[in-house]
Design brief:
The protein is of the alpha/beta class. 31% of the residues lie in helices and 17% in strands. The protein contains nine helices and 14 strands. The strands form three sheets. Strands 2-1-3-4-5-6-9-10 form an eight-stranded mixed sheet, with helices on both faces. A four-stranded parallel sheet has the order 11-12-13-14, with helices on both faces. Helix 4 packs parallel to helix 8.
């Protein structure tokens, strides 16, 4: 009787899907002095194995193989880290036993890493990013349930072929549309215009919509996954009376510019004049908005500028860096055309 039960349990475990859990640090691996402290803490302390110890029952969701890929606050993430994460995810996805990947990450730059992975990973297997807004030592820490939900989504067949995903606070969001909207709240990420793709209810992923035929830009830059030294692209924040010399400084040092403009991507006349000269010199300039919601549209007075559409300035930067790298050997006119084409596609919902 005992042997039969043990054999049955072993067989059940083997039949569970296998998920790779890649940890990078962030608040989800953070430690505070007391359980009541939720703001002042050290991020990126706990290892992936330590976090798994706080997840009783996870062995009933999926078989987990864990990898520690750095342990740092996400404000210190760089494009070089994106390349490393792309390589780690691609390696895991190539394993025929692995059905999906979960990546734990700090929330401050999570949307940028998520969008990079959306753009550079071509596998239909899901890559699901998650994090937390409270450190692991906090009373009512949100990290453990976010990991559990992310693993459930990564193991779910309905999550395939949707591009990279983000799972936090029970919501399932597309990496293409998710943005951080809160500094402290556990519901820190939303897709303000398109809404979420689904949610996890009591450990069960439920998707509201069927899969897109071809999720916009998913895997478009697969040949660049792991590529180091992407071109520099600066984000300039538009504001009343902004100094033109700051714009000149970026133009002189960057391969491309993203302007987080006022309203519908507007900017002072002096800044527009300076950036027109940059465009004439072959430097693409993307018009985005600092408002956080709504599209940036083409306008006659901004002819030559590339409208960022629905993309946040941070995501527009990621897309422009990859596009410029992909087109680095092209003629300037062809490179500018390619930038326009990829933003026309990627800037939609």
């Amino acid at each position: 009787m005992s042997n039969h039960s043990s054999s049955s349990a072993s067989s059940s475990a083997i039949s569970l899907p296998k998920v790779a859990l890649i940890a990078t640090g962030g608040t989800i691996a953070g430690v505070a002095p007391t359980p009541l402290e939720q703001i002042s803490y050290q991020a990126g302390v706990l290892t992936v194995d330590s976090m798994l110890e706080t997840l009783p029952g996870i062995e009933g969701v999926a078989r987990i193989t864990s990898v520690q890929c750095g342990n740092l606050p996400s404000e210190n993430i760089t494009p070089e880290h994106w390349a490393m994460l792309g390589e780690q995810c691609a390696k895991a996805l190539d394993d025929p036993e692995i059905c999906g990947v979960v990546l734990t990450h700090g929330t401050d730059t999570l949307e940028e890493s998520a969008f990079y992975l959306h753009l550079t990973l071509a596998s239909p297997k899901p890559v699901v990013l998650t994090g937390s807004m409270r450190p692991a030592t906090s009373l009512s820490a949100d990290g453990p349930i976010n990991i559990r939900d992310a693993v459930a989504v990564a193991a779910c067949p309905q999550a395939q072929a949707r591009g990279a995903l983000l799972v936090m606070n029970s919501r399932v969001l597309s990496a293409r549309t998710a943005v951080k909207v809160a500094t402290l709240d556990v519901e820190a990420f939303r897709a303000l215009e398109s809404g979420c793709l689904g949610r996890v209810i009591n450990g069960e992923p439920q998707f509201y919509y069927g899969r897109e035929e071809n999720p916009a830009l998913a895997g478009t830059f697969a040949e660049l996954a792991g590529r180091q030294n992407l071109p520099r692209v600066d984000v300039i924040y538009g504001c009343a009376g902004m100094p033109v010399d700051l714009v000149r400084y970026s133009v002189e040092r960057s391969a491309g510019i993203v302007l987080a403009g006022m309203g519908n991507g507007s900017m002072p006349d002096a800044v527009r004049h300076e950036l027109r000269q940059a465009i004439a010199g072959g430097i693409p300039v993307i018009r985005c908005s600092r408002t956080g919601s709504g599209p940036v549209t083409p306008l006659d007075e901004y002819e030559g500028f590339v409208p960022g559409g629905m993309l946040s300035p941070a995501k527009a930067r990621v897309l422009l860096m990859l596009t410029l790298e992909q087109q680095k050997n092209a003629e300037p006119a062809q490179r500018m055309l390619s930038v326009r084409e990829v933003f026309a596609l990627g800037a939609k919902l």
